[in-house]
Structures are given as structure tokens and as C-alpha cells.
Amino acid sequence: MVAAARELFAERGYQAVAADEIVRAAGVTRGALYHHYGDKQGLFRAVFEQLELEVTAEVEAATKDAPDLATGLLFALKAFLDACERADIRQISLIDAPAVLGWTTWREIEAEHGLGLVIGVLRQAVEQGLVKPLPVDVLAQLVLSAVNEAALMITHADNPAQARSDAEQVLATWLIGLLAE
């Protein structure tokens, strides 16, 4: 059901997809939808959480592929912005999720999946003397908020390519500014 809903939501958006269409595409009954997810919104949340797990794994892999932690921070930023350019992430995570789930719930789910990764990387960077000794929990929340805002700006921009370039330049400069001397 999640796979069928994900495909339909990504293609046409939450509002344009009826619950009956999802259950038909999944080959299940409407009762199965209600039993497992409560309603269409509950299923949407499951789809969104699946996407968040995937994006977090992609960003984490990018940091591990880097030759050093400083480069890993920049690789992570690029991996996140790359993921946010995918049609399914753009539609489900950046356009529909804030509206369907509400801003607060959207942010809580984003934090649940990405914040731990950001805290871990920043804590490691501070311990290694790479990043200035700052309150890591606060810094991580601000970094996550900034990259999420960049993704939203790119998604809603008239010229997404230019918005991506500008956002990546500003965020990279900001992150470099956090590095210790």
C-alpha cells in the first residue's frame, strides 16, 4: 500500500489522489487502509516517513564516502539537496507534507530522522577540533532548519537551478565559517 500510495502521491500530489484509487492500485480493500493506517492521511505519513528514512540514509552515506569530516559536511549538504530535487521528495516531502501533516508535525518528523545524524556529525566535528566549540544541539537544529529552508526555497523557486546554486553557495560558506581556525 505504501508503494502504491507513494507513486500516486509523487505523480499527482496528495489532494488529487483518492483513497479508493490507492487501495485499487495496491490490490487491497479500503478496510485494510483503515486497519493499518487509520485513513489516507495516516498512509501519507507512512509514505513521508519512508522517504525521510531514505534521504537520511543517503546523506549519511555521503558523509561516510568523504575523505575527511570537513568534506563530509559539504558532501552531506549536496546529497540532501540532490535528494530534494527528486520529484517524489519534492512533491511529497516539501510540497504536500507541510500542508497535509501541518507544519509542526512535518518539522517533528524531519527532526526525528535527520536531526540525530546532524547532531552526530557536528559532535564529532567539535570533538576533533574541526568546528568551533558551540552548543551542538542548538547548532544542529539551526543547520537542519537552514537546509530544510533551502530545500523549500528551491522547490518553490521560479528558477530552481539558480536557487539551488545560490542556496548551496550560501550554506557551504556558512558551514565553512563554523570551522575552527
Automatic annotation (TrEMBL):
Q: Specify the DNA-binding region ranges.
A: 18-37
GO MF terms listed in the record are: DNA-binding transcription factor activity; transcription cis-regulatory region binding
Lineage of the native species? Bacteria, Bacillati, Actinomycetota, Actinomycetes, Pseudonocardiales
Q: Does the keyword tRNA-binding apply?
A: no
Q: Does the keyword Cell membrane apply?
A: no
Q: Where is the HTH tetR-type domain?
A: 1-55
Q: Which SUPFAM superfamilies match?
A: Homeodomain-like, Tetracyclin repressor-like, C-terminal domain
**Gene3D superfamilies xrefs:** Tetracycline Repressor, domain 2 (1.10.357.10)
What species was this sequence derived from?
Answer: Amycolatopsis methanolica 239
The UniProt entry, under InterPro entries, shows: Homeodomain-like_sf, HTH-type_TetR-like_transc_reg, HTH_TetR, Rv0078-like_C, Tet_transcr_reg_TetR-rel_C_sf
Per its record, how is this protein called by name?
A: HTH tetR-type domain-containing protein
Top-rank taxon: Bacteria
Q: Which UniProt keyword terms apply here? A: DNA-binding, Transcription, Transcription regulation
